[in-house]
Amino acid sequence: MPNTEKISAVAEITEHFTRSSAAVITEYRGLSVKQVTQLRRALGRDTTYAVVKNTLTKRAAANAGVAIDDSLLVGPTAIAFVSGDPVEAAKGLRDFARANPLLVIKGGILDGKTLSAAEIGRIADLESREVLLAKLAGALKALPTRAAGLFQAPLAQMARLAKALEDKQSAEAGAAQPAEATAVAAEPVEAPAEAESSDAPAVTAEATEAAETADEPSADTETPAEPAE
Asked: What is the pTM of this model?
C-alpha cells in the first residue's frame, strides 16, 4: 500500500495540475542545486518549478484529468507549473536552456492540450501579456488625442467641406434638368383644330360675294337712248 508520503506527494502534484493553466515538462539531469534555484527565480512567482517522480506524476495527472504521454516522463523530471502568463514562462525556460544546455524542454500541456518542445518554442517567440497590454494602452491613449484634434479643426476647413458638398449637390441637380427638358421637347405639338377648319372657308365666302356684286349693273346707270328716226 502507498505510504503517507507518496499520497501527500500525489495530492500536491494533482493540485498543481488543477490550478495551473500550463505545465512544461523538463529534464534537469546535470544541473546543480544552484542552477535550479536560479531557474526558479527567473520564472517568477507565477510559475512553480518542482522536481517530481515519474510514477507519482502519472497518478497525479490521471487524478487531475490531464493526459501526458509516457515518453515525456522518462529520466530526471522537473515540471514548471504555470499559473500566470504561459508566454513569459516559456520565454524564461527557453532563455535559461540556451545559457544552460543541460536543461532539456521535452514538452508540455496548455489548457488541456499536449504540446511538443517545438510548439513551446513557438509560444516563447510570442509577445508577452505585458507587451500586448502596453500596446493596447498606447492605442487607447492615442484615441482621445485624435478626437481632440478633430474637434479643434479650423472652422475654415469645416466651411470648405460644407461648400464642396453643396457644389456636388448642385452639379447633380444641374445634370438632371437637361434630361427633363429633352423629354419635354420630344413630345409632338398638335395644331388647334379650329384654326384649320373655320378661318379658310370664311375668307372664301366673302371674296365670292364681292365678285358677284361687281358683275351686277348698277341701278343708277342710265340706258343710252335709241337714236331718233
From this structure: 0.57
- Cα distance between residue 6 and residue 1, in whole Å: 10
Q: Which of 118, 136, 164 is the last residue of a domain?
A: 164
- DSSP E strands in 10-138: the ranges are 22-27, 47-52, 77-82, 104-110, 113-116
Ordered DSSP codes for 102-154: T-EEEEEEETTEEEEHHHHHHHHTSPPHHHHHHHHHHHHHHHHHHHHHHHT--
pLDDT > 90? residue 51: yes
Domain count, the chain: 2
- Between CA 137 and CA 120 the distance in angstroms is 27
What CATH number has the domain bearing residue 52?
A: 3.30.70.1730
Q: How confident is the model at residue 34, as a pLDDT?
A: 95
What is the Cα–Cα distance from 47 to 83, expressed in whole angstroms?
Answer: 6
Residue 149 lies in a domain: yes
In this structure, the answer to whether residues 152 and 121 fall within a common structural domain is no
Select from 79, 103, 126 the last residue of a domain.
126
Q: Over the stretch 172-197, which tens digit does the pLDDT of each residue have?
A: 776 666 555 554 454 554 544 444 44
